[in-house]
UniProtKB/TrEMBL annotation, chain A:
It comes from Oryzicola mucosus. The keyword Nucleus does not apply. Transmembrane segments: none annotated. This is 2Fe-2S iron-sulfur cluster binding domain-containing protein. SUPFAM superfamilies: 2Fe-2S ferredoxin-like, CO dehydrogenase ISP C-domain like. It comes from the Bacteria. The keyword Protein biosynthesis does not apply. Keywords: 2Fe-2S, Iron, Iron-sulfur, Metal-binding, Oxidoreductase. The lineage of its organism: Bacteria, Pseudomonadati, Pseudomonadota, Alphaproteobacteria, Hyphomicrobiales. CDD domains: fer2 (cd00207). GO terms for cellular component: periplasmic space.
UniProtKB/TrEMBL annotation, chain B:
Transmembrane segments: none annotated. InterPro entries: Ald_Oxase/Xan_DH_a/b (IPR000674), Ald_Oxase/Xan_DH_a/b_sf (IPR036856), Ald_Oxase/xanthine_DH-like (IPR016208), AldOxase/xan_DH_MoCoBD1 (IPR008274), AldOxase/xan_DH_MoCoBD2 (IPR046867), AldOxase/xan_DH_Mopterin-bd_sf (IPR037165). GO terms for molecular function: iron ion binding; oxidoreductase activity. It holds the Pfam family Ald_Xan_dh_C. Residues 38-143 form the Aldehyde oxidase/xanthine dehydrogenase a/b hammerhead domain. This is Xanthine dehydrogenase family protein molybdopterin-binding subunit. It comes from the Bacteria.
Length: 169, 736
């Protein structure tokens, strides 16, 4: 099935089996293997990418549903030579161990910071209408869709804290 | 040239302390970190060849019996299907850690629900997945499969060497001023590494290359060769990055052998990744345990007797059994001891190593019992433990190599504000929450495993390390680079570490917390050999040569290494083997945990508020990655205490909660900003680095501190882990 997507700013054409998930399309057809498959069921967040500005589990949606959508993957966030501020903060704070959940964590956190900026409340927000302060509790809650079995959680929170509020992430 | 060391005695040369580069111990960033945060680190499924075919495993849906037939014709007729693999070489379950040979093979005999019996291979993943779903199996179930360890029909083994009887525990219990005699259970656990088990196999003539997600490549190579019936020479395994293992990837697994068989038949590379459900069902689980603890103490709280009985389970014919009582013989004093170890043979998913087999569950339970004893005796739990630290290993009657439990207990109590704890349960309230504190000791046995590494100092003054060691998140890339940089006087950027390729010298692999110390020693030895060659060139003694920042300093001369080498490349291999040292002394790592929880008085829900771990593991090689290892271990403990539990259907043993929606790992919101303190320690009996393992220490006993905190908070003693809210709320009324 023919699908056209913008991935990391580039127009990409895809002709894949309609059963192909967005995750498998990125990994197996577009050679963007940064996004990982930890469960294929929307339960771990390893496959998180940003579609039209919002974070989603790419294993839970079919590639052909994303015709003309704008997709950002970890490869579009930064490269080893030019890391984003958040990626660098993950390195400095050891916000990972095995690194398998990490691309998903970073895509998720990148979009999460935008959600906070846009004033979205979370389950732990005391006042759902007020502008949210990015506390440890808020970050932990908002990042709980991304499992990390190595459990870099405290370091992930520190890394996000480090860049939150600064203009560059 | 190879420098060989058999660890027969202490090594008190303290070579690292003679060095001046200043790398070892520092919180250096992981050198591969930039690749990991940008999605460029290549895990097993990340570099698929263009002509790759995809395979999906098919599982048996009976518990015990025979696979009589498969309707492969119908599946082969589907679009894209290339082949269906089944038969006598398929693995029943993964190899146990360090087996070095194939596990039970053959798809005809089914021993547990979920056993992989076939692989459907197609041009695309979508086609293979469809084919796997469509494949019809003719299965013949035997009606008598025993699936519960308590089933009276279960055959129960009591291996002689696992039982210990010293003195007379019954008598000690009778005479005791204070005693505890309780039963506890812990459920099965899954390693649940985030990267599923996956392999890509590719043949060239008679040789196969497998890119896989594995922890111990030298052993895996032998296991794969044996499973395929070929020579080890014809097997190469690559695993430069491994997305977590925690024991589940110690031994070669069914997907690897199936991928290799399919690739051989088709003449193209074949990639097989397990689904998450298959990872749960067909890779190792930690056995559930049923434990009985007896503690006898005199009027001062000094232990006179300890009894620890455990019933665990495994499939018929498997060697491994969860070594629940591993630390009980030497952790606390007591003249009278009884250790009982029983294994029930049942038809559930194979049991094997999951992070810290033994202490993870055994010590946790012992530490809950110690809390019960502290309360009965009216002694502070920290004091009770300190009082009972023995002077030497009370069972083997040998000295300890180093022992920092008392220091860890004191340091932890001081930092956590333990003196603020009210020993009376239910005495602190915060709105609708009962608040309480608990603590536990940490202990884990320490091991050294044979390991080799090659260090090359090339003419440009840069060093390269090569070994088939893996980095499963443990920090191998960082610490090996630090050790070589320290020994050769090079900054991190001038040392390249190449791992995860069986073409390199065979290492210990990652397991049992022994990787860093064992393989780090091999690297240290390789560097010593290079130093010897440098001394020869400089015509000096090692003691007179200082290496720093790429220069050699001898007397008042400072010469760039490049000039010393003068176009030469120096190679040093290191080879370490365990020896008599481990018999002469008891080696272990120690620590303490302190936890504060809130227990909701309405729902019974427990939320962990604060947690501290203090650990002593010899020399810390990298303060940053060591701390991360402890965070990881403690978080496994949080899961064990509160949420993690494999549930098996009582009728057919099948795993009911085989995914992340139903098997609850701790998520970010379940884990507070845990504090970790690493104590300064050296253990010269362990190895020439004076370092001990740290990957598992953080889980050993951790859950005990949380369960004890729940008791202090609300007065409910949970003895059946995990402490889910149904169990807590049941006790809340009684405790009022
Ligand atoms: S792979 Fe998509 S959520 Fe787990
Ligand atoms: S870093 Fe290993 S799962 Fe998160």
């Amino acid at each position: 099935m023919k699908t056209t997507l913008t991935v990391n700013g580039q127009l990409r054409h895809l002709d894949a089996d309609p059963r192909t998930t967005l995750l498998d399309a990125l990994r197996n057809h577009l050679n963007l293997t940064g996004s990982k498959k930890g469960c294929d069921h929307g339960q771990c967040g390893a496959c998180t990418v940003i579609v039209n500005g919002r974070r989603i589990n790419s294993c839970l949606s079919l590639a052909c549903m994303h015709d003309s959508d704008e997709v950002v993957t970890i490869e579009g966030i930064g490269t080893p030579e030019h890391l984003s501020a958040l990626q660098q903060a993950f390195v400095s704070h050891d916000g990972f161990q095995c690194g398998f959940c990490t691309p998903g964590q970073i895509c998720s956190a990148t979009a999460m910071l935008d959600e906070v900026e846009a004033g979205w409340p979370s389950h732990v927000s005391a006042d759902v209408t007020a502008k949210q302060d990015l506390t440890v509790e808020e970050i932990s809650e908002r990042m709980s869709g991304n499992l990390c079995r190595c459990s870099a959680y405290p370091n992930i929170v520190d890394a996000i804290m480090d860049v939150a509020g600064s203009a560059k992430r | 040239m190879t420098l060989h060391l058999k660890m027969d005695d202490r090594d008190d040369r303290y070579r690292l302390d003679d060095m001046v580069q200043g790398l070892v111990g520092t919180p250096t960033d992981r050198p591969e970190g930039k690749l990991k945060v940008s999605g460029k680190a290549s895990y097993a499924m990340d570099v698929l060849p263009d002509d790759v075919c995809h395979g999906v495993l098919v599982r048996a849906t009976i518990t015990h019996g025979k696979l009589r037939d498969l309707d492969t014709e119908a599946v082969r007729a589907l679009p894209g299907i290339r082949t269906v693999i089944t038969g006598k070489r398929m693995l029943r379950n993964p190899a146990q850690g360090m087996a070095g040979k194939a596990p039970v093979q053959g798809s005809d005999d089914i021993a547990y629900f979920g056993q992989p019996v076939a692989l459907v291979v197609a041009d695309t993943l979508e086609q293979a997945r469809h084919g796997a779903l469509a494949l019809r199996l003719t299965l013949e179930a035997k009606g008598d499969a025993v699936v519960n360890p308590h089933d009276p029909d279960a055959s129960v083994e009591m291996p002689k060497k696992e039982q210990v009887l010293i003195g007379d525990l019954d008598e000690a219990m009778k005479k005791a001023a204070f005693s505890v005699d309780q039963h506890y259970t812990t459920p099965g656990h899954s390693s649940a590494a985030m990267e599923p088990h996956a392999s890509v196999a590719h043949w060239h003539g008679d040789s196969v290359t497998l890119r896989g997600s594995y922890q111990m490549l030298a052993y895996n190579k032998a296991e794969l060769a044996d499973a395929l019936g070929i020579s080890e020479k014809n097997v190469r395994i690559l695993a430069p990055y491994v997305g977590g293992g925690f024991g589940a990837k110690l031994g070669i697994s069914p997907e690897a052998v199936a991928a290799a068989l399919a690739s051989k038949e088709l003449g193209v590379p074949v990639a097989v990744s397990m689904t998450r459900q298959q990872v749960f069902e067909t890779t190792m689980r930690r056995s559930e345990t049923n434990q009985r603890i007896r503690l006898a103490a005199d009027e001062n709280g000094l232990l006179t007797g300890i009894g620890h009985e455990a019933l665990v389970s495994n499939l018929p014919g498997e060697d491994f059994s969860e070594p629940v009582t591993q630390a009980t013989p030497f952790l606390y004093r007591g003249e009278n001891r009884e250790i009982v170890h029983k294994i029930a043979r049942i038809h559930r998913t194979c049991a094997g190593s999951v992070r810290a087999p033994g202490e993870a569950v055994g010590l946790t339970v012992l530490e809950i019992a110690m809390d019960e004893l502290a309360e009965k005796a009216g002694i502070d739990p920290v004091e009770l433990r300190k009082k009972n630290i023995p002077d030497q290993d009370p069972t083997d009657q040998i000295p300890f190599s180093s022992h920092a439990l008392a220091e860890a207990l004191d340091e932890g109590a001081r930092r956590f504000g333990w003196d603020k704890r009210n020993p009376k349960p239910r005495s602190t309230r915060d709105g609708e929450w009962f608040v309480g504190m608990g603590m536990a000791s940490a202990v884990r046995v320490n091991m050294l495993i044979e390991s080799k590494a090659r260090v090359t100092l090339s003419a440009d003054g840069r060093a390269m390390i090569e070994t088939d060691m893996t980095d499963i998140g443990t920090g191998t890339y960082a610490i090996l680079g630090q050790i070589a940089g320290e020994m050769l006087g090079l900054p991190m950027e001038d040392v390249e570490t190449r791992l995860g390729d069986t073409e390199f010298p065979p290492a210990s692999g990652s397991g049992g917390s022994f990787g860093a110390a064992s393989n780090g020693t091999a690297v240290l030895l390789g560097c010593e050999e290079i130093r010897r060659q440098l001394c020869k060139k400089l015509n000096c003694e090692d003691a007179d040569m200082t290496l720093k920042g790429g220069y050699a300093i001898v007397g008042n001369k400072r010469i760039a290494l490049r000039d010393v080498l003068d176009g030469d490349t120096l190679v040093g291999e290191g080879h370490v083997q365990p020896g008599k040292a481990e018999k002469k002394v008891r080696q272990a790592t120690y620590g303490s945990y302190f936890a504060e929880v809130g227990v909701n008085s309405v729902t019974g829900e427990t939320r962990l508020r604060r947690m501290l771990g203090v650990f002593a593991a010899g020399r810390i090689l990298n303060a940053k990655t060591a701390r991360s290892q402890c965070l990881g271990g403690m978080t496994f403990g949080i899961g064990m205490a509160l949420t993690e539990e494999l549930i098996h259907d009582r009728r057919d043993g099948h795993m009911v909660n085989h995914d992340f929606a139903e098997y609850h790992l701790p998520v970010n919101a379940d884990v507070p900003q845990i504090e970790v303190v690493l104590l300064e320690e050296r253990d010269e009996w362990a190895n020439p680095l004076q370092a001990k393992g740290i990957g598992e220490l953080g889980i050993c006993g951790a859950a005990g501190s949380i369960v004890n905190a729940i008791y202090n908070a609300c007065g409910v003693r949970v003895r059946q882990l995990p402490a889910t809210l149904d169990k807590v709320i049941d006790g809340l009324d009684e405790a009022t």
